[in-house]
Write a structure and sequence with these properties.
alpha+beta, Arc Repressor Mutant, subunit A, Dna Ligase, domain 1, 2 domains, two-stranded antiparallel ribbon, 5 helices, 5 strands, 38% helix, flat
Length: 126
């Protein structure tokens, strides 16, 4: 494995910020200025193919990635886009007329709101 790919894995390890490919690229580029975006993208694609990273489609402007592959949910700030993991399990009941037509393999609950920092900024601006 190349040093650049190792740096990508190190950046992702334990990362709870749900970075985009651009975020990963910019972080690793500081250590490896010659790294290409293709290397980052190909590494992400390889990790996805072996279930080593989750691709989140909760940000309409860009895909975000989560190295925490255990089942969990997310809280998303409507103001700044911050994403926070929620490790609580929610009991969801799927209506029988729907569950009969699907084989349920998992779920992800998304909560939207305003984070503490953004609420604080709004209070200061007033």
């Amino acid at each position: 494995m190349t040093p650049q790919r190792m740096a990508i894995l190190q950046f992702l390890e334990g990362n709870i910020d749900h970075p985009s490919a651009e975020d990963i690229f910019n972080a690793v580029k500081k250590q490896y200025p010659m790294i290409s975006f293709a290397t980052v993208y190909n590494t992400i694609e390889k990790l996805k193919s072996i279930d080593g990273i989750l691709e989140l489609n909760i940000d309409t402007s860009r895909r975000r990635y989560d190295p925490n592959i255990k089942a969990h949910h997310h809280l998303i700030c409507n103001s700044c886009g911050k994403i926070v993991d929620i490790q609580t399990d929610f009991k969801l009941t799927i209506p029988a007329h729907i569950s009969r037509t699907f084989e349920i393999e998992g779920n992800q609950v998304e909560f939207y709101g305003t984070c503490h920092d953004c609420r604080k900024k709004k209070v200061i601006k007033r």
